[in-house]
Amino acid sequence: MQFSTWSFPKLAVVLGTVGMLAALGSSYLLKPEYVSKATLRITPVAAQPPSLNEMIRQLVTGILSRASLSKIINDPRLNLYSEERKTKPFEDVIEEMKGNIQVLFVALPGKAGARASAFDVEFTYPDGTKARQTVQALVNAFMVQNLSSRQPEVLDVLDAASQPVQPRFPDRGSITMMGLILGLICAALISMIQRARNRTSISLLASNA
After folding, report:
1. Higher confidence at residue 209 or residue 55?
2. Which pLDDT band, with edges at 50, 70 and 90, does 207 fall under?
3. Terminal-to-terminal C-alpha distance of the chain
4. Strand, coil or helix: what is 33?
5. CATH number of 34-159
């Protein structure tokens, strides 16, 4: 493609468009990450309960155990990490799932915060529907874990597992914008090179006159 006679506006339009399309196309080659989230609330039964955060940590420890995660991974309705299980040791798959689970404490406003504590359960997965179903499985596991404890607390669901519509990653809008910017930078560089060459040619003509 000959750029030597093109003006900067034309270069900017063409290379900016090419950069945008190339960036957008490449974003579809990246593995998407969908995030589903549910919010749970724990309310102690005892008059003087232990730390609410400690209660939640104990529940999380049980949920992230090998037995608990193995049961969810091997659930035929979910069939999580099917490709990874073909090539990786199962222990590595469990560690990968642990890395995709987040439990985040949530502040409760007003008087409720004195006697209750809430936390979000998040799971990241390439399939949005499976992400939601897995969060629901984790919520069920929290309920079972709580009921199996010596002194079960009141554990209820404030927000059910969400159905992610758009992937958190890749951010195609940002990637497309980066492609546009790179295209404009290339157009500016080519335009600068053209101007430098034109000035050199004019100088040579003037010296030979």
Report:
1. 55
2. low
3. 33
4. strand
5. 3.30.70.1130
Angle between helices 52-63 and 66-73 (to 10 degrees): 60
Q: Nearest 10 degrees: CA dihedral of 170, 100, 42, 45?
A: 180
- 136-144's contacts with Cβ under 8 Å and 24+ in sequence apart are 136/38, 136/160, 136/161, 137/72, 137/75, 137/78, 138/38, 138/63, 138/72, 138/101, 139/38, 139/40, 141/63, 141/68, 141/71, 141/72, 142/40, 142/59, 142/63
Give the pLDDT band of residue 130 (cuts 50, 70, 90).
Answer: very high
Using DSSP's 3-state secondary structure scheme, residue 166 falls into coil
Measured between alpha carbons, how far is 196 from 189 in angstroms, rounded to an integer?
11
Kind of pairing, strands 117-125 and 34-43? antiparallel
Residue 126 in contact with residue 33, Cβ under 8 Å? yes
Cα–Cα distance, 35 to 132 (Å, whole number)? 8
Domain borders along the chain are 8-28+170-208, 34-159
Structure confidence by residue, pLDDT tens digits, 134-150: 999 999 999 998 888 77
